């Protein structure tokens, strides 16, 4: 019996992948699975990031089932990550199937020309893509090596934290979990979706401060949302940095979680307590509210906890919310607060210890230099979270190219909103004019967005 082949089309948008996939489909009598066609059919002009993950997971399951039955398959996703391609190569090998990788590349100018042409002549088949988006995607793309393309290169070992490529693949593309998300999102399902985002090439996690801001960010298309303790404090008329007690903060977190269907990870500052048990109780309460994860800081009142004490607090958080049910993001303030010694070395030491205690990812705010960020991403054994717009103004695509997996905004969106309010108030006070209303969302539109 002829062995089936898994064909992988690899490349950035508008490089000719789908044209080639259709040719392979005809010539090889293969099942073609083009993700964008499914997203278009289901969502039209919308292109929600969470939908892409859902559909990819389902289509991969279909592909593997077809290979098991002896049918060749074309997966036409782009597959920008080497890890994604390696996981699928391993899955095909496990089924006794062959693999062919077809890589497509264009100069940025030709890619931009093709994108513009397609948007002008066949807009129903594509989505708007800005020059900034194209450049950002190119920065995150892992170009296949010659050995990867001809199959002579051995498969890499699975990423840290995964025993097999099958385990990583199910983590990256968990279709049965994501299938439930649109209809009946549960805390565990939300946590699985949030965790899976960390296995991709990188994602932006915006920070909401109330249910209204969360709803707007969800409607924009973000697949997950964080809260901002700073923004919540400011919305309550008090400064950031512990002015709100645990009950008040959790009340606001609960309202945000209840307002949206996407996963919400909560900024729980240092855990609202002096002991590890206090931290565990805080995390348990956040999980009960439906939060999919949280940040926990290793500093309070301007000083770092001793590393052993900080590890105990992370371990208590993990015990309160088991792995797989809650995404634990351990924040270290070595650069933000400062250390007596080498900040880089202490950051890496703390990150390793926090990961060993159960943290799913590590958050390092306050880093200014791009080269330092790159070195931290390489040295830390779990996904790295960096905040944009605080200590530096490095944009998200550049951060992804440095190895960062998760880019949050902290209180920046809340600051932008309050700044707009101040400018509007100043204009009214100084001149009485209404220029601040230019470009604002209309009343009827906002009513519709909030369910009227």
Brief summary:
Helix content is 49%, strand content 13%. The protein contains 20 helices and 15 strands.
| Straight-line distance between termini | 60 Å
What class, by secondary structure content? alpha/beta
Q: How much helical structure, as a percent, in the residues? A: 40-55%
Count of DSSP helices?
A: 20
CATH homologous superfamily descriptor of the largest domain: Phosphoenolpyruvate-binding domains
Strand order of the largest sheet: 5-15-14-13-12-9-8-7-6
In the CATH scheme, the class of the largest domain would be Alpha Beta
Low-confidence stretches: 175-184
Q: How many domain modules?
A: 2
Q: What percentage of amino acids are in beta strands?
A: 5-15%
Shape: globular
Number of strands: 15
CATH names the topology of the largest domain as TIM Barrel
Give the biggest sheet. 9 strands, parallel
Cα-atom Rg, whole angstroms?
A: 23 Å
Mean pLDDT: 89
- CATH-derived architecture of the largest domain: Alpha-Beta Barrel
Main attributes of the structure:
452 residues; alpha/beta; Rossmann fold; TIM Barrel; 2 domains; nine-stranded parallel β-sheet; four-stranded parallel β-sheet; 20 helices; globular
